[in-house]
């Protein structure tokens, strides 16, 4: 911070000085009138270089800060108008400069500038066709500063020779006063007058682009820092050397202080004289080697370098002091760190001892708890084993009784169906109306016969579950309604209600289907075999055996459903016979017949949350393999075996999940416990699983 502040202050100070110098440069107003006449109306007066001289001088003066009026090949009117403008412009100017290149004549000690349209016949022409140099001086006197006149106009003038010839012939009386060169201007304070040659002498026009005088003037004007008297002395030396001494310029200087035409070095130095950077001052010296400000710039560089060395020494001392202080702070910090490290090591050892004691205590408590848990698990496993054995024996007894009852029901149903078929065929032969209507037949078909078998002993829920399983395999809305009415196990009521709702759609559609069935007698055929068990009819009296006439074959016309509905009905019947959540979900996903979707939804709602798939033997047909519709088939042979009972749904017990839970207690894996809890089917184990998961998560 201490290094940057002086630089910042120096930069701000330099900016202020630069602003001030720019304002001063703008206030220093300098004006100039540059005239160059080459093409005169009199062809004998033609000069090649004045217009080039005037053009180049005007450009050079603009380059050093002059406001320039330029007149090339000016006639009398143009010259007078430009003189008037110049007089107005020079008012209160800090410097006013007049430059003229062309013909000029001295008459009676006065100097006259020749416009391009001047016709000099005699001495009267000087007053009215020439421009006196006194008018130029009058315009310059309106300025407050330096007044500069540069005359590169003492050229060889044929007018002088012509006037002299007139004198010899007696045509002019005052022609003796005409001279080829210019006369000296009276001395005036604050004025500089530069002649391209000595008084009363003629200057050369030059062979190049510019005259010798103007060429030397342009060269020296490019050198900044030359005082005006020094500048014209160098110009005179250059012209004298170039012309071999034939042309010797003269300069009149009446100034109280130094003045510089090319002040670019002053402007540049004012911008950088207070700069703290020595490189900027070195650049100024290299660029303006002739400037009068070079010594001051060198002194400034020496002061800056001395200040830089002093600042560097001071900064070195400060850095050394800072280094020593930093080393001391570092040593103190290291001592403090060592002390803290020793304290931390002591605390760490104490904490390690406490942690080891706590870990040992926890280990002993865990071992005791694990021993208690193992003892409890052994007792629970023994109890569950005994319960499984008792439940298994009870389930085997129940399954055996249910199978016996189902077998008896199927035998009675087969006998009843055969008797009804024979009766209907006999009625058709007599062309008499049959007993029950087709709509009644569908009702009888869906009705299960009552049974005299005693219900299986044990829990009422087991008995109602067995009856519900039979109804799912051989559905009948009347039997479902009867079971719902006599239900003892309330937790099965929701399943029975959904099963009844799923069968209501089929029962409501049966009358419409039966009305479209028309019996057609084609030929004698054995009665069709029906695959459901209707209720047993009242006992009919036996008739005498008599030879029966040939029985005609009955063809039952049915309304053929759409192919996709027929396929979906067959799959739905299979799922009802062997309930499974997976099969039911697959059927619902692939369903094409939308009118069966309500039955599938109700059947899915009627199933318990977890139910095992039935394992049916492949050679035993299911009673409800098809939906309860009337089918025509050949009569079974006399030696055919009665229909086998439907497979019984096996409810999955909790034994397997109890064993898995015991393994999880030993493995102590929280991820396995969470996965087991998500897939748990045995709800009575859920509290134990939750407590195990919470103990593993620290909650």
Architecture overview:
The structure is a single chain. The chain has 699 residues and is of the alpha/beta class. The chain has 21 helices and twelve strands. The strands form three sheets. A six-stranded mixed beta sheet has the order 2-1-3-7-9-10, with helices on both faces. Strand 4 and strand 5 form a beta hairpin. Helix 10 packs across helix 11, helix 11 crosses helix 13 and helix 14 runs antiparallel to helix 15. The longest helix is centred in the middle third of the chain and has 136 residues. The chain starts with a helix and ends with a helix. About 19% of the residues have low confidence.
What does the largest sheet look like? 6 strands, mixed
Strand fraction equals 5-15%
Spatial order of strands in the largest sheet: 2-1-3-7-9-10
Helix content: 40-55%
Oligomer description = single chain
Structural key phrases:
699 residues; alpha/beta; 6-stranded mixed sheet; 4-stranded antiparallel sheet; 21 helices; elongated
Topology of this structure?
Elements: H1 4-27, E1 30-36, H2 50-63, E2 67-72, H3 76-90, E3 95-101, E4 104-107, E5 110-113, H4 124-129, E6 131-132, H5 133-140, E7 146-152, H6 158-168, E8 178-179, E9 191-195, H7 212-221, H8 228-243, E10 250-254, H9 264-272, H10 278-287, H11 294-429, H12 438-445, H13 460-473, H14 477-485, H15 493-515, E11 519-521, E12 554-556, H16 563-577, H17 581-590, H18 597-606, H19 655-667, H20 670-678, H21 686-697
Helix pairs in contact: 1-9, 2-7, 3-5, 7-8, 10-11, 11-13, 11-19, 12-15, 14-15, 15-18, 17-18, 20-21
